Amino acid sequence: MNLSDLVKKLFRKEIGLDLKNPEHLNLVKKAYGSYYIFKNIYDKMYRYYKGDTDAIRKYLFVTERSNLKISANYIKKFIKEEVAYTLGNDITYESRNNDSNIIKDIEYYTAHWDELHDTDLMKYLLIFTQVYELYYIDDNADFCSKIIKPTDGYAYMDNASGKVLFFIHSFKNDFETTNSYIDVYTADKIYHFDNKFNQIALPTNNIFGEVPVTIGKLTEEGTDDSLYKDIKGLQDAFETNLSDVGNEISDFRNAYLLFKNAQVDEKDIPNMKKLGVIQFPQSGGDAAWLIKDINDTFIQNTLDRYEDTMYQLACHINHNEKLQSNLSGVTLQSRLIVLGNKCNLEIKSHKNIVKNRLRFLFKYLDLKKNKFYDYKDIKALYTPNIPSDDLATAQMLSQVPEGTISKDTARSLFSFVNNKVAEAEKVKKELEEEIDLGNGYDDISRVGVE
């Protein structure tokens, strides 16, 4: 059976993927080869995020001159700003059927997760435009998730249906620097290999009944529609020119003292420096420093142009610019409208991952806790971390006729309310306590009268 026929049969579920079968294992090896081709691209994108750019790596070294390398990492700056903007506030959940139990179980069964999980997930999504979220059951029988960067994993999928046939995870142990290992996730098994695809352990059962991974995609164009692709050249040019300017300034230390119509004995130079006096043996002698004349306006204009273009391509604004002191929250939001539109698209990509995460979480609850929920009942709510004019919101709500807007919707409009469901429960509890307290006072007053 050729490789093409095998793939068709696997996707049509005519046969199951069995890596004990040499033909099936050969398909995984072919996919692993494709993973390595893409890995080189993703490795370079990650290098740029960490500040290891071509401008720094290949900066021209000039003998006997200053060779400073100045890094100015705008790619990291822009990505961190977008992560803080989109996920600076925690994700909250809402049940379309007003089922409070489902919200409580989502929060309870993910309470052990790292608080930085979703922000890291968004960060890698913005760096690579693609990221994987892998699901598993840990030793405590808890539902867990691991972020897999595309430098460490590859999902083989059917482009027509979006179904993942298998997932390859390549990794190294902390105590080993040379040996690498490969886990291959299929619909029913997890196979364990070394980097030569020799089996090193018995397969582990996969309880989910499908490949337990979500593919997060920022855009269909992939790396061609990334921040790295947009501003890589400008990032390199800015760092190169900034380093050149720094080295030009440092090279001022190499200025020369020029004598005219005079000759100075080398032995006399230390004494001249000590006394601060130069004596010329004959008339017409003169001395002056020979230094460079740098056009700082041209240099600054060039660097400013690079910086401004990077801000424009990234859809960001420069927060270091001086603003008027009396700007309102609405005015600040209007300055962020372009960045906000960009981040809204990024939120939708992240939300796709969260949807599939909930689907796997509810599979886990069904299998392990005998709780059945429909993931389509859940709506994930994102609150952008931007300046908000809560006073204007309160004034607006006070002028709206009663019965026009629900209290649930009104609560969601305030920036300091991250979980409107929990907030509603707090209000209800406070009202009940006040009523009970009021009834207690009535009883006391009646006793006093009698």
From TrEMBL:
Q: Matching Pfam families, A to Z? A: SPP1_portal (PF05133)
Origin, by domain of life?
A: Bacteria
Question: What InterPro entries is this protein classified in?
Answer: Portal_protein_SPP1_Gp6-like (IPR021145)
| Protein name per its UniProtKB record | Phage portal protein
Q: Which organism is it from?
A: Clostridium brassicae
